[in-house]
Amino acid sequence: MTTNIFLQIYQDYLERIRAGELASGTKMPSENELAREYNTSRETVRKALHLLAQNGYIHKIKAKGSFVLDIGRMDFPVGGLVSFKEMSERIGRKSHTIVYENRLIPASDEIAGHLELDKHRHLVWEVIRAREIEDESVILDKDYFRSDIVPVLTREISSGSIYEYLENELHLQISYAKKVVSVEDASEEDQKLMDLNDYVHVVVVRNYVYLEDTSLFQYTESRHRLDKFQFVNFARRAHGEEKKSDISRNPVF
């Protein structure tokens, strides 16, 4: 009987969230309230809430309660190289870029390491931008470009599309990127420049971007608010000789 109640609570609220009866940001009833409503124990209620959280429908904030997540999250492509301007045009939502930094600086130890540079011999462009979608700052982009490859980068260019400038004005052939995705504690900078809404973690996508001649010219940290994006990729399974070739190129130890 307990199992049936636990599933009933889960299913009831799942349907209400999917139907839009409970909008994003709505606070869920407390465990005590749900226990009284369904005439069951808090432990049973806790199992139902845990399942809702596990499946991405609610977010539990310590000492505050559970809140409904936006299930209409925006797809963020992990597999492709897409600029923010291109992504915002694709999702069709109001967006805006705020440029906080656009300066030429000596490469720090960390950035020199990411760009495989000798920090004593290289300057890099540092561009820090907040991305607003529907009046909320939900992405913080921190870009670093090799100045020997990108000699000029103005604030005006950074407020628009840097990739349009690189490809159309500098005629750079941007080819591929290596991406690393992780969930990390929100930094002081994240808390200052993003609308985190009590979230204490962010999804960080680190990009190492290469030109057609295999030159590593850009390193980016793209920091995202947890509830606004889902990270998607397209994958296919190799067959026959193609599979053998893939395995030989990508050994796993």
Specify the number of helices.
Answer: 9
When the domains are counted, the total is 2
The residue fraction in helices comes out at: 25-40%
Strand content: 25-35%
Record field, number of beta strands:
10
Describe the protein's architecture and organization.
Keywords: DNA-binding, Repressor, Transcription, Transcription regulation. With about 250 residues, the chain is α+β, with helices and mostly antiparallel strands. It has two domains: about 5-70, Winged helix-like DNA-binding domain superfamily/Winged helix DNA-binding domain (Arc Repressor Mutant, subunit A, Orthogonal Bundle); about 85-230, Chorismate lyase, CATH 3.40.1410.10. It is about 30% helix and about 35% strand. The chain contains nine helices and ten strands. The protein has helices at about 1-20, 30-40, 40-55, 85-90, 110-115, 155-160, 160-170, 190-195, 240-250; strands spanning about 60, 65-70, 75, 95-105, 125-135, 135-145, 175-185, 200-210, 215-225, 230. It has a six-stranded antiparallel beta sheet with strand order 4-5-6-9-8-7. Strands 1-2 form a two-stranded antiparallel ribbon. Residues about 240-253 have low confidence and may be disordered.
